[in-house]
Amino acid sequence: MSKKQLIMDKALELFAKQGFEATSVQQITDYCDISKGAFYLSFKSKDELIIALIDHFMEAITSDIDYIVKTTKNEELLYSFYYMNFQFLHKHSDFAKVFIKEQTHSLNEDLLVKMRYYNALIDNTILLMIERLFGEKVTDTKYDLMYCIKSFMGMYSELFFFNSTTLDLDLDLLAHSLVEKTNLLAKHISIPFVTKELFQVSSQTLNLEMKREQLLDLLEQKINEMDEPIIKESLILIKQQLLHQNLSPAIVSGLLENIQKHPHCKWISYLLRNYFHM
């Protein structure tokens, strides 16, 4: 584990226990058993650390949603989408609680821009799922349906935050319940409100496309970080593909599948899938 990842993991434990504001850099370094100098080599400030944590988890959930939507059979897709989202939330509930508190107390412009960016990416993936599942039947209502799906995710997530930590939630039942509700809405919504133009207003100032040069830089960074031979070799071959485009789509797809399975490569896998239109 890198020093940066160690700091993020340990800091999250402290933030979950005592809150962001009450946790000092000194407490974090003591908990990690490192010097303040080592901390500041990784992060310029505590604010930068919390932004890095938000990036880490939002990149993970964004890439997981995209992977589910692009690789799951239609008859299983909606269930898998809901189940994966709530399973992720359940697994990372400590981060979610810290994140909600930070959003509530912070008007940090960088944080707001980042959340708009991730929100727009997830919106586009949910729309892709809706179009796959319901097709032309929801042409006029797909944007309303997207907001309904996101509302389900937000409202039911409260069960993870405001109940006892010992509460045993049946994620399978929850996912099936939301599949039923979503299918009913898709079938019966008849009065659209959100138009394509209204939807696009919220993301028109965001640059959602990743350029090849940016991907090459990210790949080089990941190649230097990775120790696992298969992951490292896969990243190297993908980098060569970006430079020379000499591999077949099937091989590229297999390489992306390799790196998708690594917890620290999900984001670069997501970006590459979109770049290669896979």
From TrEMBL:
<dbReference type="InterPro" id="IPR050624">
    <property type="entry name" value="HTH-type_Tx_Regulator"/>
</dbReference>
<keyword id="KW-0678">Repressor</keyword>
<keyword id="KW-0238">DNA-binding</keyword>
<feature type="domain" description="HTH tetR-type">
    <location>
        <begin position="1"/>
        <end position="61"/>
    </location>
</feature>
<dbReference type="InterPro" id="IPR009057">
    <property type="entry name" value="Homeodomain-like_sf"/>
</dbReference>
<dbReference type="InterPro" id="IPR001647">
    <property type="entry name" value="HTH_TetR"/>
</dbReference>
<protein>
    <submittedName>
        <fullName>Transcriptional regulator</fullName>
    </submittedName>
</protein>
<dbReference type="Pfam" id="PF00440">
    <property type="entry name" value="TetR_N"/>
</dbReference>
<feature type="DNA-binding region" description="H-T-H motif">
    <location>
        <begin position="24"/>
        <end position="43"/>
    </location>
</feature>
